[in-house]
Amino acid sequence: MDEKKALLQVEDLRTYFHTEDGVVKAVDGVTFEVFPGETLGIVGESGCGKSVTSLSIMRLLDEKGEIAGGKISFDGEDVLAIPESKMMKIRGNDMAMIFQEPMTALNPVFTIGFQIMEAILLHQDVDEKKAREMAIDMLKKVGIPEPEKRIDEYPHELSGGMRQRAMIAMSLSCNPKLLFADEPTTALDVTIQAQILELMKSLQDQYGMALVMITHDLGVIAEMAQRVVVMYAGKVVEYADVHTLFKNPRHPYTWGLMNAIPKLDEDKEVLYNIPGVVPDPLDFPDGCRFNTRCPLATDKCRKEEPPLVEIENEHTAACWHIDRLIETIKVSRAGESA
Amino acid sequence: MPKKRKSEFRKVMKKYWTNGTAVLGTCLLFFFIVIAIFAPQIAGVNEMGDNYQIPRASWSSKPIAPSAEHPFGVIGGRDVFYGVIWGTRTAFRLGLIITSFAALIGVIVGSISAYFGGWVDEILMRITDIFLSIPFLVAAMVMTTILGKGLDKVIIALIIFGWMSTARLIRGNILQAREEQYVLAAKALGQKDWVIIIKHILPNTIFPVVVQMSMRIGSYVITAAGLSFLGVGAEPGYADWGTILSFSRNWMTMLDQSWFAIVFPGTAMVLFVLAWNLVGDALRDIFDPRMRS
Amino acid sequence: MTAYIIRRLLLLPLIMIGVTLIIFTMIWALGPDRLLASYVKSPEALKTPDAAERLIKKYGLDEPMPVQYLKWLGNIIQGDFGYSMVGKKGVLPSMLERFPYTLELTIYAIVPVVLVAIWLGVISAVNQNKFSDQFIRVFALVGWSLPDFVFGLLLLLVFYSILGWFPPGMVSTQFDLVMRTAEWKTITSMPTIDALLNGRLDIFIDALRHIILPVLTLAYLWWAYLLRITRSSMLEVLRKDYIRTARAKGVPERIVIKKHAKRNAMIPVITVAGGSVMGLLGGTVFVETIFSRVGMGRFLADAASLLDYWSIIGGALFFSFIMVVGNLVVDVSYALVDPRIRLE
Fold first, then answer.
1. What is the per-residue pLDDT across B8-27, written as a single tens digit (0 to 9) for each?
2. Is C263 in the A-facing interface, judged by CB distances under 8 Å?
3. For the residues B26-53, what does the mean pLDDT come to?
4. pTM
């Protein structure tokens, strides 16, 4: 067990949305920790609740959403108990977020310089001149050429990759302890993706912040994360460090995700994909939520929800048939190497 | 047991009928429809023949305050009650005829413009701009001055200058819909152009037009009444809310004597337009998220 | 951006020509006989049977339409709009002397319309579906349904006929006489302003008393419309991603609303605000008629009832011109406010 104290502790978080069609239990009992300076990956298909989790932690939910239960502790403080005025001081300052689509996430009528400086002026005790210098410096750090010129440009004048860099600059301008990155590269070209990820890694080295990388892409996880939370239908199904996860997945869903990645050295005729679709969030199945798509599902899975059990040191998974999964994986891997 | 999501239609109905203002608007509308249908029973008929001419109640020009015999009073020698009741029919006629034809012209012009694009679009839109450059009321006044008094002239005038906003609306919607994925997909499948328009584009662009139409009905009735008030609309003595109001012009400095000529037709006008606006507003709220998607 | 402005400026005369064409066509459709009535100042001229024919020839009323149109257009460009029965002089001079009164009315009306509507629209959107929003919405909806002339009549009924506080007209009779004396300096032709410039506070207050009801009537219809537009624009903006980003930065909510949301929400509102100013001018027809004021609106109304065709044409051209110029100004300011358009 690590002696370091966790920077962020999320315990049994439940976030529900009250829509006219019913209650959507987007996050239904999620628990994990983030330590200072590390990268935690949260992976899952769209609709599994990974974005809502981070929005809940930053208390950025819209009116329909409410945090229905659980505890969130950041830097020793109970995030859910503090008043909004205090939360505003934390946002952008100690905790920051970058979003998927930089074109819509940046305000079109303000220059990027203004938007970065706004964050600086809000949380730091500097004058405008200094803030501008700091903003230009930030732009340089994120690899935007000619920052003195770019600082006065509007979002639509920049390319997609530049915009995302600008967003990163904006979120890091106050040196937060924790950065949430919600699908930061999904909307970008593959080549730019790699650059942005590189940038984030190097900035993390420089600034020492903790990073929560939210993505559906296992490749990004493999590249960036030290520990991983796998989410499905609002619940955590597996939780481990990244090497263990890829070497010894212990949940059928994780295994399914990995199989779905085509490998360069393989020559499959038919690409594997997990059968079925993500269940309707208004109407999750009874028992294990993955049972409708799981090749190993039995009656028990359809009736009783499996708890998260610790398989080995700091590796937990929620499945009734982990032993059968291990067998299946052994057989499949033996077949591959044959 | 898996819960069934409500069907789209039932969802729409529920949203509509739980909206207080929508219910109010619909009730008001219903109320007016009943009055219009039963006008002969409620206010009687004009023995002389043309029911739309308010029968003379007195030969003096002095306004007579409301009484048991004339519940809404007498102005310009005409019974206001009769005028207000039969005026309901006039209002429906005006509103529905003008709106339908103006919308029809607008949809045709806008669709052609959007479909053909290029210089056809450019020219049609410039023509629309030109028509839009003359303030609606002013244009209507010029037209009715030329065409002469009478309700049918008012209808023509308002149709001629009322189609532009519908044209722009449907053109914008079609242009937007054309770029939508489902249209491109249909095209890629080899679907013919006109089938695409009718099957895919029109259903998604027609709803905003319907919403706009219901909002415009009220405004056309008001403009027509305004024209009558100024003396360039229906002939004096016609069963129209505006013409009743125009009688009060003779009593401007003594409005307390002719208040009923303002209050009763005025109230009728407000409630009528309010009804259409509430219904249109509710329709827009319902279709809004759909229009967005 | 400059290319955009130039293109719009070039379109302006073309559109005006289109407008003149439409208006002229309508009048020409009257036919030579009815048109003749507006040329003939007294019935005597038509006494002889062939007089009508002679006069039709004299005024060129039997020539083909394009010829008549071009002749007329030529006159317009030189400033000859024909004779006005309403003004008892040329149409253009009649309009020019009435314009300041309408301008005064409009200026006083714009301020309450724009400020109140935008202010309430923002409140309404931010407090969506709460009581204040519902209340404001109902208020605006009723406003949208009550025609301006009915509202004006009701105001006149209550505040003049019953209460006697605010009379119709421009100024009280005794002050009117003062304004006709030689000592009176008519600088702007607007009673309230001129009263101040002439140092007569009493006349200023009197003129204000007379202008209050008309201003309220004029402003009110567009106020309701503008409020709805502001509200819906604001609602849309509040749903956008960049609002969430601003909150994620820790920007206090009231700054999110005032700065981030409002700047974006105002962009479409400006267009409508501009358009509503144009509509205000159209509303002057009723307002000036009901409140017995002098002005362009009254001019048009009187011309319509007298069948004074040249005055009607002149009035219609005038209002259209303001509309076209106004639209241009709105488009340009739209480009100024939205950097996405500005830099295209």
1. 677 777 777 777 778 888 99
2. yes
3. 86
4. 0.76
- Start-to-end CA distance of chain A, whole Å, equals 38
Say which residues have a Cβ less than 8 Å from residue A61's Cβ, sequence separation at least 6: A15, A52, A55, A67
- What are the φ and ψ backbone dihedral angles of A40, each rounded to 5 degrees? -105, 130
Name residues of chain C where pLDDT drops below 50.
none
CA distance B167 to B170: 5
In whole angstroms, what is the distance from residue A240 CA to residue A313 CA? 9
Alpha helices in chain A (DSSP H): 50-57, 84-90, 102-105, 112-123, 128-141, 147-150, 160-172, 190-207, 218-224, 242-247, 252-259, 299-303, 322-337
The C-alpha of A318 sits at a distance from chain C's nearest C-alpha, in angstroms, of: 33
- Rounded distance, CA B177 to CA A130, Å? 48
- Tell me the Cα Rg of chain B: 23
Residues 6+ apart with CB under 8 A from B264: B72, B73, B80, B81, B84, B244
Which positions in chain A touch B15 (Cβ < 8 Å)? 20
Distance from CA of A120 to the nearest CA of C (A): 9
SS3 annotation, B49-95: CCCCECCECCCCCCCECCCCCCCCCEECCEEHHHHHHHHHHHHHHHH
Question: Does C309 contact B at CB distance below 8 Å?
Answer: yes
Name the closest residue on chain C to residue A170, using Cα atoms.
C249
Judging by beta carbons within 10 Å of its beta carbon (0-12, 13-18, 19+), is residue A208 exposed, middle or buried? exposed
| Structure confidence by residue, pLDDT tens digits, A17-44 | 988 778 889 999 999 999 999 999 999 8
Across A285-290, average pLDDT? 87
- Long-range contacts from A133-140, C-beta under 8 angstroms, 24+ separation: A134/A173, A135/A169, A135/A173, A138/A169, A138/A170, A138/A172, A138/A173, A139/A112, A139/A165, A139/A166, A139/A169
Phi, psi of A211 (to 5 degrees): -125, 130
Which of 7-66 (A) contact B at CB < 8 A? 20-22
User: Which of C253, C260, C267 is nearest residue A107 as measured by Cβ atoms?
Assistant: C260
Give the residue from C10, C157, C237, C307 with the most B CB atoms within 10 Å of its CB, the best one to mutate: C157
ipTM of predicted complex: 0.84
> At CA A297, angle to CA A296 and CA A299, rounded to 5?
140
B232 vs B243: CA distance, rounded Å:
10
Q: Which of B129, B226, B274 sits opposite C145 (nearest CB)?
A: B274
Residues shown for chain C: 344
HSE-up of residue C247 (Cα within 13 Å, Cβ side): 19
Q: How far is CA A84 from CA A121, A171, A176, C127, in A?
A: 19, 20, 18, 18
CB contact under 8 A, B274 and C14: no
Inter-chain contact C248–A60, Cβ cutoff 8 Å? Answer: yes
Q: Which residue shows structure tokens 């009769």?
A: B82
CB A252 within 8 A of CB A82: no
CA dihedral B46, B48, B50, B54 (to 10 degrees): -50
Secondary structure letter of residue B278 according to DSSP = H
Residue that has been written with the tokens 């303001």 in this structure = C322
> What are phi and psi for residue A146, nearest 5 degrees?
50, 55
Q: Name the minimum distance, in Å, from the CA of A326 to any CA of chain C.
A: 42
**Measured between CB atoms, does C19 come within 8 Å of chain B?**
yes
Angstrom CA distances, C256 to B82, C121, C237, C243, C259, stand at 56, 16, 11, 7, 6
The two tokens of residue B1 are 């047991």
Name the nearest CA neighbour of B84 among B229, B259, B243: B243
Output phi, psi for A179, to 5 deg. Answer: -120, 125
Beta-strand pair B74-75/A309-312: unpaired
Neighbouring C-beta atoms of residue A43, cutoff 10 Å? 24
A293: left (phi over 0), alpha (psi -120 to 50) or beta: alpha
